[in-house]
Amino acid sequence: PVSSTLYGSRSLTGDMGGSVTHQCFYSITPANKHDRKYWCKAAGSRTCYTIISTTGYISKDYWGRVSLEDISQNGTLVVTMTGLKKSDTGIYQCGIGTTNSDLYVRVNLTVTTDATTLEPIKLIQGELHGSVTVLCPPGDPQGGEKRFWCKVGRSGCSLIANSDGYVGMSYQGRISITPQESSGAFKVLINDLKKEDSGLYRCGTGRISSQDSPQMVALQVTTASTLPKRPKFLSGTVGYSLSVKCHYDPKGSYEKKYLCRWKGATCSLLVDTDGFVHESYEGRIQLTSSNQETGTYTVVISQLREEDAGWYWCGAENGQTEHTSSVKLFIQKETCSSQDPETSTLVKPTLSSPAASSTPTQRSITGLTHTMGTVTESTSTLLPAASPSTFVTTPSTFVTTPSTFVTTPAEIYYQSSSGESRLLAVVLPALILLIITTIAVLILTKIKLQKGTGEESSAIGNLEAAPIRDGVNPVEKQMEENPSPGKMHKHSTDPGKCRWVFSASGTARVASL
């Protein structure tokens, strides 16, 4: 049977003649709300005899000493047994469904003469992608013991986080254990809630194997959440600035807003609305604005360093309750345009002037929105986040990507050397082929023209020259032999008998008709 959406304590102890109360918690879905709930006692591996159910049935052996309450709005099933007998010791099932083999969780009840009384399980509800605050009571009065938070399962309680810095893989960056001043109590803060976070937990001090932890907690994550799922990562560049917009519930009344740095289940305060600034961030972090109507506030970190990389939390306190959200920051050393695998060209971005303005590129995350950029004393010029393929620099914006670099208004464009070699390999053969083709066409044209000229000269040479009549003026003869270019002069003492014929070289010849 699938019992992951139904959970409760795995063991109970009760005094002879006394009473026990058992709580089961289920996911709040329409089917679970309206389906049959039951409490039965197991007899063997496959049989479970119903003691009481929400249909009104009660076993005659338990009349007057058992009750079952279904609190559907909280997804809680409460079973109470009184007048305990030694024979009541055994394995029971708390379940949902038309039969006793559907959805259920098992619990082992032990009836003794010196049972330890346990505190009732505390129910904590949170929205999907939201956050919760769990208050754990003081443990060992001597103090100094490590604090822990573990999840109850079939084989024991699996450690999630402790005050020594251990954090489970699926809880990295989203859980912290905060001790309370002098009381010995502590708070467990969890954000970016997931469906699988629902379940039964224990918080306490000392050894996790100890069964006398003072607090049991049932965490329910409601899937009908109005909170959006936002990205949890942002990036910055060494020497530049980062603007982080944090979100909180505008309907709540919060005494303090802050930004802290998370590491190993603790979150060190960096800046808050009370004016506190961590010494290592003096002069380069400030909480610049807060808007109660929209439920936002902005934190600016300038002069980013490599060591600034890591997890950060936005937080808003309301008494013992805190609304938190987390984000992981990645820091780039510098921006460069990609070259051959062995070499690269470094690019130093140009800082914008105080008067310059630009439209920031923003990205929302769980409980916060971030904008990358440089911040000056008078105005904030925000930088869009760097991506891995183009670099653009204008008087007010700066974007980086690994293969091209563009500077406006000068319009200087650089390509990687590998790109140039590929372009040259394509263009050079085509250029050589074009030159060879052109030369060949010119040679063929010249040969054709020479051939045509030779044929014409041969044809004219075969004509018999007409005799020149006597009495022709020598000057006229000279004019006939050397006519003006482009003109043809007709001369004859006997019109209609002669005509001028020009050879290709322009020499006039007289042909007889």
Automatic annotation (TrEMBL):
Compartments in which it is found: Membrane
Superkingdom as given in the UniProt entry: Eukaryota
GO molecular function, one term: transmembrane signaling receptor activity
Pfam families in the record: V-set
Ranges for region Disordered: 340-369
Main subcellular location: membrane
Biased composition (Low complexity): 352-361
SMART domains according to UniProt: IG, IGv
Keywords: Membrane, Transmembrane, Transmembrane helix
Residues of the Ig-like domain: 1-110, 214-330
InterPro entries: CD300_family_receptors, Ig-like_dom, Ig-like_dom_sf, Ig-like_fold, Ig_sub, Ig_V-set
One Gene Ontology cellular component: plasma membrane
Comp. bias (Polar residues): 340-351
Membrane spanning residue stretches: 423-444
Protein name: PIGR protein
Source organism: Baryphthengus martii (Rufous motmot)
Gene name, Swiss-Prot/TrEMBL: Pigr
